[in-house]
Amino acid sequence: MEIVLVGLNHRTAPVEVRERVSYTAEQARRAAAELRSRGILEETLVLSTCNRSEVYGVPPESSHECAAGLSSFLSEFHEVRPDILGRSLYHHYDRHAVRHLFRVSAGLDSMLLGEAEILGQVREAYRFAHEQGATGPVLNRMFQAALEVGKRVRSETELGTRPMSVASAGVKLAERIFGKLSERKALVLGAGTISEQVIMLLRDRGIAQLLVMNRSRERAEKLATEFRGMVVPWGEWDAALQTPDMIISSVAAEDPILERDTLERAMSARGNRALFLMDLGLPRNIDPAAAELYNVYLYNLDDLGGIVKQSRAVRESEIPRAETIVEEHVGKFLSWQASVELVGLVEELRARLQDERNTFVRDRMESMKHLSADDRVRMEALMGELLEKLLLEPAERLRGEKELRRKIQNVEALRDLFLSNRHADREKP
Amino acid sequence: MDHLYFILTLVAYAASLACYTGFLNTGKVLVGRCASVLLLLGLVAHYFALLERSRGLHTVPYHDLYGSMSLFGWLVALTYLGLEFYHQQRSVGAFAVPFVLAFFVASHLAPPDRLTPTVAHGVVFALHVTLSILAYAAFALSFVLSLIYLGEERLLRSRKLTSVVWRLPSLELLERMSHSSVLVGVISIAIGTVLGFIWVDRLTGQYWFYDPKYVITLLVLFLYLLYFQLARTTAWRGARASRLCVFNFFVVVLSFTVVNLYFSHSHRYF
Asked: What letter would DSSP give residue A157?
């Protein structure tokens, strides 16, 4: 059984091409159904994210022409000229397709090395395709293994643990101080893109309460409504600084908006409860002297950037370990695939030999008129027993011995050796 | 048999320490679970080692300094495992288990001729000693947790984050674990001290006679109650409370060593 993958990603295609070849849920469902109804693929799964669009499949027969058919289909489905699409598409087969998927799931192929989102996207794509009945035994096994690889890489290496953006570094630091953020409150100063990124991360972490403060109340309200937060009037520091456990500031201002004295008063009023300050402004929004206050933890862009740089180095050093895990699972999957194919081959061989036995017995019995009906039946049974005995041991060994399956790499060669020219033989005079 | 239990305990504790250290470095869940299981096995073997010691000496295992050290190590391991289970956090194991191992090994360095059997003193005395040593064990753990807190807090404030910082518990969780440990210690020492007075009354007919050990024990109890109170008020929450906890443990060490050895009439081991 062959596995084929055709797709494009952020490395092979610019965003203008990727956005034309992406799939909504309905499009993914339609594409999978059409691929199967046209006989291009027996099993299909579409994986579509902002950085990649890939189609995984098992064709009905072993054929590399399937990939060409798949490329044509994609061009037609998305109404993109073949020459434009052709420049961006990559094709992988069998082991390489499996390895590619496992690497994607592990975050090794992501724009942001080791990012966690892709694992959820792979899981969702698999769940969706499985519910539609588009997958079969091969893709089911392959994607279950891919999810296992993704989990293992993230739990056994540091690939997924270290923050890769300034915003995520800040949120992770908050977790170092407070533990789970589900009982914590955050005050966000500013309503721009960076504030939005931080708010999204905080919401992902289950922050209990979100307060938004911005010079433009309208923008603050828009952000607060989108992320289920509350607006705090700009400038009311004494009231605003009492509640939150962390303050994230990303405001365009020439001078600091939070001076040390303001924070000192606030800390006194809140009983010196720990306060985490994330200063994402440039120029800085928070007086650096505030870092000297008891139970105040202040990080600015440089500090967070340093953590991201350190994280990148650590993540990159974890790549070999992650690749080892990927290869281990590729080997396991191929071993499973070979065992299924070999068992199938033994069954086909059994059927072929039984056919041959029946033909042989029928032809030879013609000339043995001296044999009684009982003798003929007994002779047929004996031949059947002999066949079973000859096939039993190899079948059991193939099922039980992994090393043997590993040695028998090319199942197609065995199939050709024992089962080829079947129809040609029958047609010979 | 004693030798066998010693070997089993030593191997289990050492393997547990190796696994906790591996877990701290790699974060592998399976390695962490192995560490906890090995520590539990070590506790079981250590318990039987203590029983064998008792049988051999025909008395309680803590009648001398070395026996007390062994029991102390056992109770540190037991208290730590309880904290780990309650707070679902095992990153601290790599810092706690060395104490367990050190005290267990040290307790077996006693030359045999120093050990003289004494008369058993009954259940009240046994509970008094056990609870007192449990208190010391709990305070020792809170000391370790406070040190980790202060180290991590310093790294966070200085913005020098090493790999280990990402594996340690959060500051908030370290504080809670320390509070739990101190709570165990305070309850144990309070009950243990009361039982001690009851035992003295049974022995001598009076609840009280002057012994510097009583004074310092009450001082320890007071200091930890103070820590409890201050750590709950937000003004002292954080590094200040942890520093107080570290200071308090030095008073505990003073009580267990200098006071026991040189000043106390009834708590000497030699």
From this structure: S
Beta bridge partners of A246: A186, A276
Domain chopping of chain B, boundaries = 1-120, 122-270
- And the tokens for A72? 């044509």
Residues A342 and A351: their CA atoms lie apart, in Å, by 14
The neighbour count for residue A195, using CB atoms within 10 Å, is 24
Quick: pLDDT tens for B213-242.
888 889 999 999 999 888 877 678 889 999
Show the beta-strand stretches assigned E in B40-127.
none
Instruction: Identify which of B166, B172, B240 has the shortest CB distance to residue A177.
Output: B172
DSSP state for residue B258 in the 8-state scheme: I
Contact between A265 and A236 under an 8 Å Cβ cutoff? The reply is: no
Average pLDDT score, chain A: 86
Enter the pTM of the model: 0.74
Confirm or reject contact between A205 and chain B (CB < 8 A). Answer: no
Instruction: Quote the ipTM score.
Output: 0.85
Q: Which CATH number fits domain B1-120: 1.20.120, 3.30.300, 1.25.40, 1.10.10?
A: 1.20.120
Residues of B in contact with A306 (CB under 8 A): 159
Query: Which among B42, B29, B112, B104 is positioned nearest to B71, based on CA atoms?
Result: B104
Question: In CATH, which of 3.40.50.720, 2.30.120.10, 3.10.690.10, 3.40.30.10 is domain A166-306?
Answer: 3.40.50.720
Give the Å distances, CA to CA, from A386 to A353, A357, A393.
Answer: 11, 11, 12
**Catalytic center residues of A:** 50
**Strands of A52-58's sheet, edge to edge?**
A43-48, A52-58, A4-9, A90-93
